[in-house]
Write a structure and sequence with these properties.
This protein starts with 5 loop residues before the first strand and ends in an 8-residue tail after the last strand. It has a nine-stranded mixed sheet with strand order 5-4-3-2-6-1-7-9-8, sandwiched between helices. It contains seven helices and nine strands. The chain is of the alpha/beta class. The longest helix has 12 residues.
Length: 236
């Protein structure tokens, strides 16, 4: 398979472990200071990856917000914002979504082999559609290890994964994560229809193999927890 990028997962969740609310379109879990921290992390990465459901539900731009950070990236010889990456099992993405329509950066869409032709017809003008093999595995999921290896081959050395819950679960259960940045917001959601931080799966970190906690930082009314999930963890 080859090597894979240094991979950090970044997300915010409620005290009871939800990424959002079933009744609120965009539940504000973070705060201004933490948004700026996340922006700095984005600026330090080669690519940002989210699942197709996040593209559809949240319509994220996934761009570096700070003009100074964008200028610094350009002066360093790269694009103002990192490459944007998404993974889809259905190919059902809107080519005018902000993911595709904003930012003069490369956009990559990974999908199962049987959907490549139709997905290229839909998105080929706004993104590079990549075949990652058949989706006949359990749950019809795209092979995350193949995605990670392909991104490494494309020059991605530092990858930021921002969600949603299915994508976070896939990376964690595949043991492809070097660092977890988890922000806990002082709210409860309590809704069965809301999305959890992760779903069911066989995770490498259990009661018998506890994830090392590398940092705890209060940022206003939220708390950042950084976990070192591999020997490649970078403290800075």
């Amino acid at each position: 398979m080859g090597d894979h990028p240094y991979t950090l997962l970044s997300c915010s969740m409620s005290i009871d472990g939800y990424l959002d609310s079933a009744t609120v379109k965009r539940l504000p879990l973070s705060n201004t200071a933490d948004f700026d921290r996340v922006d700095a992390v984005r600026a330090s990465c080669d690519a940002i990856l989210v699942g197709a459901a996040t593209v559809r539900n949240d319509n994220p731009r996934l761009l570096v917000r700070s003009p100074a950070r964008a200028v610094q990236r350009v002066s360093d010889g790269t694009s103002a914002s990192p490459m944007k990456v998404t993974i889809t099992r259905s190919g059902e993405l809107d080519p005018i979504a902000d993911f595709f329509a904003t930012g003069d950066v490369e956009k990559i869409v990974y999908c199962p082999r049987e959907l490549v032709r139709a997905t290229r017809q839909r998105l080929g003008a706004v993104a590079t559609v990549v075949d990652v093999g058949s989706s006949v595995d359990v749950g019809g999921c795209v092979d995350i290890a193949s995605v990670s290896a392909d991104l490494f081959d494309r020059g991605v050395r530092r990858l930021m994964v921002e969600g949603g819950g299915i994508t976070l679960t896939q990376f964690l259960t595949a043991d492809l994560v070097d660092e977890l940045q988890l922000v806990v917001a002082p709210v409860f959601v309590g809704g069965a229809g809301a999305r959890r931080f992760v779903g069911d799966g066989c995770f490498p970190w259990t009661a018998d193999r506890r994830a090392p906690l590398a940092e705890v930082r209060q940022i206003g009314d939220v708390v950042l927890l950084r976990y070192a999930l591999s020997e490649r963890f970078c403290a800075n």
